[in-house]
Amino acid sequence: MEQSPSLEDCLKLLQGERDEQRLAGLLLVTKFCSREDHASIRRVYDAVGVRFLDRLLRTGMGKGTVRGDQGHNQDAYLQLSVTVLAAFCRIPEIASSKDMVSKIPLVLEIMPKESASSFLEECYEFLLLVSTSCEDGVASLYESGGVNVLASQMSTLRSGCHTMELALRLAQLILSKMSRESINNEYPLELSKMVAAVAREFALLHNALKFEALHLLSAILSSEHSSPVHEALRLMSDNMWSTYIRVGIVAILQNRVAPAEKLQALILAESSISIIGEQWLIGPMTISHGQEPQDPIPADRCLLLVSESARVEIAVLLNELAYLKYEASKDTSCTAENILSKQQNLAIAFSLVEKIIKLISNISGGEGSSISESTFIKVISGIDETIGVVLEYIQDAKDHGQNKGDDLLASVRIIGSYLAETPTACEEKVKGLLSYMLTIEGEGESRFYNPFYAICFLFPMLCQITMKVEGCKILASSGGYRAVVECLIKLIGPHDHLVEDKGGIFLACDTVMNLLLKREQIRIRLDEPIFVHLLKALAHWTEVTSDPTVLLMAGSICSLIFDATSEAALLSHPNFELGALNSLNQLILRSLAVGGQGMSDDAKALEDLYQIVAAGYSRWADRFPHIKNFVERELIVFGK
């Protein structure tokens, strides 16, 4: 009976003088050497030597020769070389060697030319083993075009196969080790293709690989440097990837999975909305191209689940943050890191609720909706409950004398978004907390601007409540009107270029104007220094603009302030000089001129502002001789 070859027989062949012997030895090794037998694999590696392995791989690629080769066995040599390389790299010391790292570019070069699943699997296994073993490995993978190879091949791999699992892990490794900013800027198109392929896995799979796909999608799309990838996805002609992500998120949120996985799903949902818009929350839940399922999932299921999950997440996070900030020990760095982590997660959940508020608002103002009545009621109820919890958290912070923190600033923002749609909701709670909310500051706000953003977030609500006397009284009695005026000064004054968001300027102007129009009923004093600073800021704002809305808005506010003072009183103020009065001359003149030119149909909406300026001028002109003389000298035609 013929005896089977032993390891020693293989080693003798591998140490032979001729390449034919070494080839025979490697072939025998692949037949009986166990993948887990690291000791034997090490002996084989030492016996065959790195130079022969390199020649074998290059011969398979058509770049070299093995002695005795007639050029007919190139494919076999390539298969054999990759098989043994993957086997050798199961030993970390071998995988991290310079010889193995140097072969990464060669393996990446051959992968696009091959389609055999077993061969590609061994290529991916080799790349993963070497890249995870040392920093040089993942750097070589990235620099040699690994992202390109992954992006082009992932869409062709069979769903759920082991090769796909290896590809997902390679992509995760690159994202975790290399500069996220560089990857996103250099490979936005490739990453968008990768997203499309991974999203399919996320939707179709129902095993552990589904979570691998979830983590990879979150890593690609939720980075602060993801904008180029977002834009590439918006430009894709096929947006099926967004449906895949929606289906996958619904599967995660409606099943019993770990809280950390649900949080990842919410992070991915927030990123998807940032790319597509709030309407992404409502859409098809079917991914098969065949017959429709008998029990189709409603199009609004994602909205309902994201809304409910965000509600629960916010309640839990606010409770944990309150404990960490006010009850737990503050002496450990662990506590500070924990607070920061929870604040970041809270920002995601808050962002989702704000986007849902916007979606509901748009649907309420439109004709027709894909949201069922029951879902609509549940979502509104959940938002109401969330706002109640947030107000309690703000009250807790007030009771503890805290008014600084990104979590508090984010809380004010979500309150502002909600009250912009329903200004009378939670009226008593809001009334009691309004003056405190106007003092809240974020951690990153500069000293000059504190408090600023909290007031900006509340302007939509402030603008609406000050349309009524009661709302103005709330601001007046608490002194909150000063914070509002100071914020407007920062928005339009000499330092306005430091402010990124200018969208709240007109809301701020409307709020201040509402207060000024009702000043006799709410009894606020306009001789305070802050109103002098506001006049100077308004003059600065209008110096170089010809926008009639800006001119008439600024002119109206000036005119209302002039009602309560005089030129002599202003010039006696230590922070008001003749130059400022000259600037106001120009502002009043230009506002009157804009209104007196015969407005176009589009400008008829500015008629009310013009009337405020003109009527005010007729009341206070005699108390402002400098302005009166200038206007009468320069304005040829005046009055309506």
Could you give a quick summary of the protein structure above?
With 640 residues, the protein is mainly α. It has helices at residues 7-14, 19-32, 38-48, 50-60, 74-88, 92-95, 98-101, 104-110, 117-133, 135-143, 146-154, 162-177, 180-186, 188-204, 208-221, 227-234, 240-253, 259-276, 301-326, 333-364, 373-399, 406-421, 427-437, 453-465, 469-478, 480-492, 505-517, 519-522, 529-541, 548-562, 567-571, 578-595, 607-620, 625-634.
Task: Note the main attributes of this structure.
single chain, 640 residues, 34 helices, 0% strand
How is the biggest beta sheet arranged? none
Mean pLDDT across residues:
87
Helix content: 55-70%
| Beta strand count | 0
Structural class: mainly alpha
Approximately how much beta-strand content do the residues carry? under 5%
Shape category = elongated
**N→C terminal distance:** 120 Å
Low-pLDDT windows of residues = none
How would you portray this structure in words?
The chain has 640 residues and is an all-alpha fold. It is 69% helix and 0% strand. The chain contains 34 helices and no strands. α12 runs parallel beside α15 (208-221), α18 packs across α20 and α30 crosses α32 (578-595). The longest helix has 32 residues, at 333-364. It starts with 6 loop residues before the first helix and ends in a 6-residue tail after the last helix. The model has no long low-confidence stretch (mean pLDDT 87).
